[in-house]
Amino acid sequence: MVLGFFTASRYTPKFDFKADFVSVRGEPVAEKIREFREAGYKRVIYGTSTGHDNYYVVGRWDGKRHYDEIQLSKYPDIVWEGTALAWYKVPIGHYVAITFPPTRLGSYYIVPTANFIKFKQEEVKGALEAGADGVEFDQPEFWTRAGYSEAFKREWEDYYGERWIDPESSFEARYKAERLKSHLYARLIKETFDKIKSINPDVECIVNPHSPINYAEIFQARSPWGGITAPIGCLVSIPSVDGILGEVWSDTIKANIIYGGYTTIEPFFHSYLERSYFYNLTKGSGKKLYHLLDPKSDDPKFDWYTYQRWFEMDTLAAFMTNARNFIVAWPERLFTKYMPPAYEPPEDYKTIFLSLMNVCREIADYPREGDSAIGVPISDAIMWCRGLPGLHYIDGFYALALPMIEDGVFVEVFPIERATEVDYLNQFKVLLVSYESWFPYEEAQHRALMKWVKEGGTLIYFGESLFSDLASSWWREKGYVSPQDAILADLGICEKPVLTRIEYSRLTSVGEHELSRRLGREFELIVESPEVFVSPPYLLGYEVPKDLWIYRAERNSESAVVFETSAGKGRFLYVGIPPRFLVYSQMGVKLVKTLCRYAAETIGIECEKNDALCVKRGPYILLYALADITIQGRFIDILDSRVPLIESKELKRREYAILKTVDLPESMDILFSASVISQKMIKQDELTFKADGPEDTIGVTTVYIPSSKPSSVRVEDLETGENKLIGYEWEEPKRTLCIRYRHTRSGLAVQIKA
């Protein structure tokens, strides 16, 4: 287990929660490294952005201006992305680029050219010479709406051997633009990290992307300008990458989505899906996965109650996805730098944060047992399909990923890029797939999926392949219209598949089938007003043998809209409803749940609806309630600032808990503490220990005393001897003592006598 944090601030004991390492950002690098080492941090790494820059652009590095390397958009406008006073000029148009050069308050997103790579190599080399033990490369991002600068046009010609084409002009042009953007940042990462390893092979190299889900939706259900492209699925194949920090936090998880006919915000579910992706990206790869934990959103307009709930749900999702290594973002936001309108956070929240840090320290020893056999794959192409002329949303992804989780059945999101590895897909028994929002951009990915089906997997494919008009694609080279058609051909269903687009009508069952028993002989997707649909729904049918048919469209008897067949040892279930239409009504959600349960139960996987999502990791019980529930036992309630010993926990729907099961000791001992505990000694009637935490924060420790109420409780500053005890509470029936005190920079000496 490794627990760290990154900060742009100088060292102060006020936010020092005694992590294992720190990543320093911003100048003066050498002084910051020295200060943290003097404070006891043996491991200090250097964090830098991969693409936000003005030092390079204005010529301070090589004496040459590089305005032609700014990420430019097509139109003369400017979009701002802001966090407090750290503002970045996001892909800007030509007119603004000429009239507004970079200022001291901002920096530009960059096209990572070969010259820029040399600049970054020199920058990180300087950090290593200043004493950094590792490098953390933050957010390798190329905006979808960018791709119009002269530098990008030159890179296009070098990479493709042809003249640049406007990315908005066709699917082919968009595909080439986004794939090139991904390549350029992958090249930056590889060549910079390779250079670092040539200097010192022991230096840890970490790269910090958001998830492909977040980059594709860019913090909202509808993005008017597309999203961001980054190399993510390929990171585990770069030898010099040692670790990946999955940047999932309160700003990514509060993105609104459309689901079940409504626009909604589901922070916990959102976090789980994003973190599941990163877990499966790195699992078994030899790369270390760090989970980001952020106690305060970048968005300044909310109150501390909201920030705290987001942080708790996000941390809960991290624990549920088997997190073992953690990096906290900007602890100064919680402890020292208070911004309006929220200003200073509640003391109780700071204490709960410290309790969760201790859970991070312990939970790594208790891995989650077993992973879900139900999977939803995506590829990096989910980011490549967003800009014009593609879709600006990924509703179809949530249509497949959320329904079973909403019923208390875990689903794993994973990168199809890793499907080509031997045995990688073997954990999955059922996959829910659609090429509406993404596609397998390498034929090897497609072949791996087909092999998995033929060897016993069950593939539920939801018909659509919007981004298939690519002359340079592997499926066109093989003579297929789309990668969806390639599935039917390679599974032996149709030699030359012909897809028919059918005007929407209700589905009518053909013959007797278990699905028609579960869904009804007629199935109507639109039970609400058609106005809830963003665009008029339609169906997609294939002409396949009649004995495979399950449903056809009421107004079309020539094509099967839903059919099932065996494929080798596996099964293939085709559903000719584009998944984006499934989120616009509750009937769409019901359809996905029914299909998934049918497929899973057919091969012996239980998918009963549960009242809660629950994961047990050693003594820790992680709960997210989907109905009103009560859990009985003897627990420490981690999300209560008093860390009390409780014997039952009631949760309402959409409430959550992190509980630690405790066995009562035979003698006086600590049950749980929000402080970092060391030098603990237990005598017959006396317990002593040292308690550490950020200066001026409130620490809480719960102690079990089987004999009698304590005769004395002392908490003193180790350096001055000053009394720092705030108070204590004795619970006679439970024989527990809850002590509250204020941390100091030198630590506290605690003495309890029975």
Could you describe the 3D structure shown?
This protein has a nine-stranded mixed β-sheet with strand order 18-17-19-20-27-26-25-22-23. Strands 1-2-3-8-10-12-15-16 form an eight-stranded parallel beta barrel, surrounded by six helices. Strand 38 (725-731) and strand 39 (736-742) form a beta hairpin. The chain is globular. It is built from 18 helices and 40 strands. With 754 residues, the chain is an alpha/beta fold. Among the domains are: 374-602, Class I glutamine amidotransferase (GATase) domain (Rossmann fold); 612-661, Immunoglobulin-like (Sandwich); 669-753, Polysaccharide lyase family 8-like, C-terminal (Chondroitinase Ac, Chain A, domain 3), CATH 2.60.220. Helix 3 runs parallel beside helix 5, helix 8 (267-282) runs parallel beside helix 9 (304-320) and helix 13 crosses helix 18.
Oligomer: single chain
Helix content: 25-40%
The average pLDDT score comes to: 92
User: How is the CATH topology of the domain at 374-602 named?
Assistant: Rossmann fold
Helix count, DSSP H or I runs of 4 or more residues: 18
Backbone CA Rg: 28 Å
Short summary:
By secondary structure, this protein is an alpha/beta fold.
SSE blueprint:
Blueprint: E1 2-7, E2 21-25, H1 29-38, E3 44-49, E4 52-53, E5 79-83, E6 86-90, H2 94-99, E7 106-109, H3 114-129, E8 134-138, E9 142-143, H4 150-160, H5 171-199, E10 204-208, H6 212-217, E11 228-229, E12 243-246, H7 250-253, E13 257-259, E14 262-264, H8 267-282, E15 288-293, H9 304-320, E16 325-329, H10 332-335, H11 347-363, E17 374-378, H12 381-384, H13 395-406, E18 412-415, E19 430-433, H14 443-454, E20 458-462, H15 474-477, H16 483-490, E21 499-503, E22 507-509, H17 514-519, E23 522-523, E24 538-542, E25 549-553, E26 560-567, E27 570-575, H18 586-602, E28 612-617, E29 620-625, E30 629-637, E31 645-651, E32 656-661, E33 669-673, E34 676-682, E35 686-692, E36 698-704, E37 712-717, E38 725-731, E39 736-742, E40 748-753
Parallel strand pairs: 1-2, 1-16, 2-3, 3-8, 6-7, 8-10, 10-12, 12-15, 15-16, 17-18, 17-19, 19-20, 20-27
Antiparallel strand pairs: 4-7, 5-6, 9-11, 13-14, 21-24, 22-23, 22-25, 25-26, 26-27, 28-29, 29-32, 30-31, 30-32, 33-36, 34-35, 35-40, 36-39, 37-40, 38-39
Helix pairs in contact: 3-5, 8-9, 9-11, 13-18
